[in-house]
Design goal:
Helix content: over 70%
Structural class: mainly alpha
Strand content: under 5%
Order of helices and strands: HHHHHHH
Largest sheet: none
Number of helices: 7
Length: 229
């Protein structure tokens, strides 16, 4: 009976890893769709979000069943409750990738991103994908140092986000209001996606230590850098 119980706990963790990998892939493909004005790829990303939603619903159902039948305490209770919160972060990340894809679909056959911002958006997309891949690794390894490092790595995304606004506020901006709105939204989508990856990592810290990540000190240096920074 206890073996089955712990297998169910492990299956919740496996579901979280699968969700993280799916949304990481989604943000990468959505970035390609928005930059290349690829309608077929955008539609595929939008459709695939249903799988992420389905995984979250399954995970919630398993967690609630465990709470009702097993009444977990201490670390096991922390695993179940924290997993529910992580699944919400990951589901929202999938929604954000879908938003990027929907913008690509909305502007098709035109490109939503002007050529002079192509490199910045590409880097934001690649960084978002790397951050979520690291979040998945943190879920698997329960590595607290790696989790704390992720928050510092997110500084690179914040810097890219500010770079976008510098372009928008430049007197030489020549792409019009509609494109400015599109770029503003894209910047927000990527920035929020990265925040959710960080949130997942912070929840793993709490799961492992029982302490909140913000209360822990770490001298880990960020490993993800903005090119040219």
């Amino acid at each position: 009976m206890r073996d089955a119980y712990h297998e169910e706990l492990d299956s919740i963790g496996d579901g979280l890893v699968e969700m993280a990998r799916l949304v990481g892939s989604a943000i990468g493909r959505a970035t390609t769709a928005i930059l290349d004005s690829d309608l077929k790829l955008a539609e595929a990303v939008i459709e695939a979000d249903q799988k992420v939603d389905g995984l979250q619903h399954e995970l919630e159902a398993r967690a609630i069943t465990l709470l009702a039948r097993q009444q977990p305490v201490a670390t096991d209770l922390r695993i179940v409750v924290t997993s529910l919160r992580m699944s919400a972060d990951l589901e929202r990340s999938g929604d954000l990738a879908q938003h990027v894809a929907k913008l690509a679909r909305l502007r098709y056959p035109e490109r939503a991103v002007p050529h002079d911002l192509h490199a910045t958006i590409l880097e934001m997309g690649q960084l978002a994908q790397r951050l979520m891949a690291k979040a998945a690794e943190v879920i698997i390894t329960k590595d607290v140092d790696l989790a704390l490092q992720l928050e510092q790595d997110d500084d690179a995304m914040d810097l890219l986000h500010r770079t976008l606004f510098q372009h928008l506020m430049d007197d030489r901006w020549k792409h019009g209001i509609e494109t400015a709105v599109d770029v503003t939204l894209l910047g927000r989508y990527y920035e929020r996606f990265a925040d959710h990856a960080v949130s997942v990592a912070k929840r793993v810290v709490y799961l492992v230590t029982g302490e909140h990540a913000d209360d822990l000190q770490s001298d880990i240096q960020p490993t993800t850098q903005v090119e040219g920074a």
